[in-house]
Amino acid sequence: MTVYMRAGEIAKKPVVTLAGDDIGQVKDIVFDSSTGDIRCFTLAGRGLLSGPLHRALLWRNVHALGPHAVMVRDESALEEDDSAATPGEDERAGVNVLGVAVTTRSGTQLGRVTDAVVATGRKPAVAGYEVETAERERVLLPVAGPITVSGERILVSDATAQHSAGNLGGFGSAVEGLRHRPVHDPQED
Amino acid sequence: MEWWTWLIIALAIFAAVTVSIAALQARRRSGGVIAQGRRPRGGGGPES
């Protein structure tokens, strides 16, 4: 069963080894915009005065993602640097999607991203976004397939607006509705 | 100036520096949701 959670719930979670050592906290969640798959986390130190750790935590090295902590086997689960969180040669610079406008391919602006929704499980992925609409209402929009992300906007299919959810409880149905919608326009896929 | 004037000035400077450091530190530690991937095809126009 897929469990959905807001990315904001994962950020700032402590990263704890199975021995109980607190070795950092989640700072950024880095995902692949073409597949939605979570690639890694960047980390910050745990002290009040500590800054970024400059060490990435790849998802494959995460032992468990619990409600209160991200568990890893030991400190060797962390990469030596944060190069895993930096774009490859054929990739553009990473874009923080928080605050970015969500627009349909036909040009309707749906709102601005306030959070991302992550489908947890064996292969966690960004499954949608929480957006604040022009009416200051927050809705959850599922995404299906590759999306276009630039520094200014996220382009989603026109059908996305018809499959929104008000809370995480209804988000699974919204995702299923979007995935199994009848397709009329080849541009939608 | 009276001694207490200097005290108020010193406290004000201390408060301003403390707030600035706290804000800077919060900014350094704040995270995001970062999208990475290949450049968008067709410059963001309709895709086929």
UniProtKB/TrEMBL annotation, chain A:
Pfam families reported in the protein's UniProt record: PRC
Domain PRC-barrel, residue spans: 5-60
Signal peptide boundaries: none
Gene3D superfamilies registered for this protein in UniProt: PRC-barrel domain (2.30.30.240)
Tree of life domain: Bacteria
Protein name from the UniProt record: PRC-barrel domain-containing protein
Classification via SUPFAM superfamilies: PRC-barrel domain
